[in-house]
Amino acid sequence: MIERSDSPVDESIAAFVRRRFNQEVLDYIVNPFVAGTLAGDPEQLSVRHAMPQLHMLEQTHGSVMKAFLKAAKAERGSGAAAPGASPLISFRGGLQEIVDAFARELTSELRLRAPVTQLRGGPRGWTVGAAYQGPETYDAVIYAAPAHNLDDIDLDLTGGERLSTLSSIVHPPLAVLALGFSREQVTHKLDGFGCLVPEAERRRILGTIFSSTLFPDRAPEGFVLLTVFAGGARDPDFVGSDPQTLTARVLDDLRILLGTRGEPSFRAVQVWPKAIPQYVLGYGRFKDIADQVEQHNPGLALAGTYRDGVSLNDAISSGIRAAERVSTMLSKQPMAGGVSTAELH
Residue 340 pLDDT > 70, yes or no? Predict the structure, then answer.
């Protein structure tokens, strides 16, 4: 039996898997999973921070496999979803519908095309300076922009210099390609969620989602839609290629992996220069900075994928918790300017 590790030293995902399992599990299960979901390198990512559930299973159960089997048994007995599992959902117009719904509710308060340039705390509230408009004062501020944007803001607050260091969190680039084919152009049955590609296979793509299989109305009748991911920490330079080269190299892989033939009838390429924050070894220092800055600056809350996890569920939960912290603070400390909140996007 492999004993759980009680070492305070941060352990990489790769080291954890080698210790608990073996190199083959790392190469052909964990490596493609980490690349496809976190755009990361398991050798660099902290298991404690990038995969906290996995780390907690070892701490609470000792045996990771026993914990998985116990959860599966409980799921079969109750008919409920496994702990942490979420239903697979989307929207007809994509996840943009969530943003649009918020925008409709906030029409009178929403300020667009006004990037924040200064954030100043003080006894009378928070002063927010933005491009193209004068500074305004608020009772509280929720910073919900990416960590790398902190470097663009003049932070005049307790611990502002330390908070600025969060802009150094690594965000590797990611290319997302939406490719449409007629059904006859793809020999694979596309009868699953998609595929993830181990680094050992030396392909350009990280993985592919069978979008038209998973969700209705993603492709016209007789056609299929594939969403392909490339780049990340595994191959960041590839993302700098022009769209034609990106598409050509991706198609080379799809022909081998899924049996695609010919050119796609639809293609769209989206490049994210700074995509997903990497919870690397030692990442706890960034979380500590965020916690300490909040503690020393009542009325400021920090939320986002750099704080509580990179999934959509994590991001939403992070925002809810930030709002709850601000709400609690305002209820205990009456402010001169009323109850208003500035969200920095």
Answer: no
Distances, alpha carbon 184 to alpha carbons 13, 14, 222, 224, 264, in Å? 40, 40, 8, 9, 12
* Homologous superfamily (CATH) for 174-272: Protoporphyrinogen oxidase, mitochondrial; domain 2 (3.90.660.20)
Would you state the structure tokens that stand for residue 155, as one six-digit string? 């932070």
Residues 211 and 224: their CA atoms lie apart, in Å, by 8
Rounded Cα gap, residues 169 and 267, in angstroms: 32
Does 72 have pLDDT greater than 60? no
CA distance 181 to 158: 55
Out of 3.40.640.10, 3.50.50.60, 1.10.3720.10, 3.20.10.10, select the CATH number for domain 111-169+280-344: 3.50.50.60
Strand partners, 268: 178
Do 13-77 and 174-272 fold alike per CATH? no
What global pTM score does this model have?
A: 0.86
Among 279, 285, 328, 282, smallest CA distance to 304 is for 279
Q: What is the pLDDT of residues 229-277, one digit of tens each?
A: 999 999 999 999 999 999 999 999 999 999 999 999 999 999 999 999 9
What pLDDT is stored for residue 25 in this prediction?
A: 96
How many Cβ atoms are within 10 Å of 279's Cβ, its own excluded? 28
Pairing of strands 205-210, 194-196: antiparallel
Report the DSSP beta bridge partners of residue 180: 225, 266
pLDDT digits (tens, 9 = 90+) for 173-197: 999 999 999 999 999 999 999 999 9
- Architecture of the 13-77 domain: Orthogonal Bundle (1.10)
Q: What was the pLDDT predicted at 74?
A: 57
- Model pLDDT, residue 35: 96
Cα distance between residue 257 and residue 228, in whole Å: 12
Instruction: Report CA dihedral (257, 211, 102, 278) to the nearest 10 degrees.
Output: -20
Report domain extents, the chain: 13-77, 111-169+280-344, 174-272
Is the predicted pLDDT of residue 316 greater than 80, yes or no?
yes
Report the alpha-carbon distance of residue 130 to residue 113 in Å, rounded. Answer: 9
